[in-house]
């Protein structure tokens, strides 16, 4: 049963990522696109956790944590760039 | 006993994925940037938190007890408001469009 | 400055670092405990300059209660936001609300802003230069004053109790 549930969840996350991509292409302003990228990486974490469950492997945790850290730094850097036109003042 | 845990994991997984989907749907559907900010910061964060919880419960039944997945949830719950705040500031800086019926004014700093 | 204050300028930060290290290595052994203790001791000393105003916890148990209340509210908030997102978006009443702060402690203001972002239909967007007001964006705000009162009662009061030695 759990296997089918995980497949269903992977499908739902895929649809969510597709919606993010549409917003990424459409987004009228730059902050919209950055927000779409931000959501995209959080959904990628969700997907990696689901893959870890599906393959019954604990190794996926490190990848998910790394994506969380890098994604946050990336989002803040781009937001800072939009805010000031410069990342390191 | 085993099946009870399996049901719990399945329920948490479905709930988490549903919230992530709703967050992205909000991002896609809502009319202006400031409203779109709400979906990802709240729904998606809780969705991933719920998935992580499910994964933790599942792996604890296989004998590898580990709380380290909690770190991802903790990290997301701390960082999501920060990046939302930074993005809101950036949007105010570039004068992102907002729907006319929004009351109140964004700041110029 | 007395001796413990000099060697452990931020005891709570040290404890937090030790806890995070334990979670990260995911293995409770003497070696990892010693490594965590060393990290928890050295990192606050090295980053001392970045913490000009170390938060002092006056009533830790109020903070614990506050954390549980916020966790409950986050769950509740998400069902609310889900309902708002799935409903007709033309009926929503978005608003920017200026929120007057009573908290003066910077760390406390940070915690309050984070809490506001995670709970019902509100995102804190900016804090004024003099740290006296917050700008909040609400997804569906029928009444601004009601929102301000709710935040004040529910979240700011306990934070004032924890971070400032209030005389009231």
TrEMBL record, chain A:
GO terms for cellular component: plasma membrane. It is a multi-pass membrane protein. It is found in: Cell membrane. The chain crosses the membrane at residues 5-22, 34-54, 60-83. GO terms for molecular function: sodium:proton antiporter activity. It comes from the Bacteria. Keywords: Antiport, Cell membrane, Ion transport, Membrane, Transmembrane, Transmembrane helix, Transport. NCBIfam families: PRK06161.1. PANTHER family: NA(+)/H(+) ANTIPORTER SUBUNIT F1, NA(+)_H(+) ANTIPORTER SUBUNIT F. Belongs to the CPA3 antiporters (TC 2.A.63) subunit F family. This is K+/H+ antiporter subunit F. It comes from Halopseudomonas bauzanensis. The lineage of its organism: Bacteria, Pseudomonadati, Pseudomonadota, Gammaproteobacteria, Pseudomonadales.
UniProtKB/TrEMBL annotation, chain B:
It comes from Halopseudomonas bauzanensis. GO terms for molecular function: sodium:proton antiporter activity. It holds the Pfam family PhaG_MnhG_YufB. Keywords: Membrane, Transmembrane, Transmembrane helix. The keyword Transmembrane helix applies. The keyword Membrane applies. The chain crosses the membrane at residues 6-28, 71-91. Coiled coil: none annotated. This is Multicomponent K+:H+ antiporter subunit G. It comes from the Bacteria.
From TrEMBL, chain C:
Keywords: Cell membrane, Membrane, Transmembrane, Transmembrane helix. It is a multi-pass membrane protein. One of its GO terms (cellular component) is plasma membrane. The chain crosses the membrane at residues 7-24, 30-51. One of its GO terms (molecular function) is monoatomic cation transmembrane transporter activity. It is found in: Cell membrane. Coiled coil: none annotated. Belongs to the CPA3 antiporters (TC 2.A.63) subunit E family. This is Multicomponent K+:H+ antiporter subunit E. It comes from Halopseudomonas bauzanensis. The lineage of its organism: Bacteria, Pseudomonadati, Pseudomonadota, Gammaproteobacteria, Pseudomonadales.
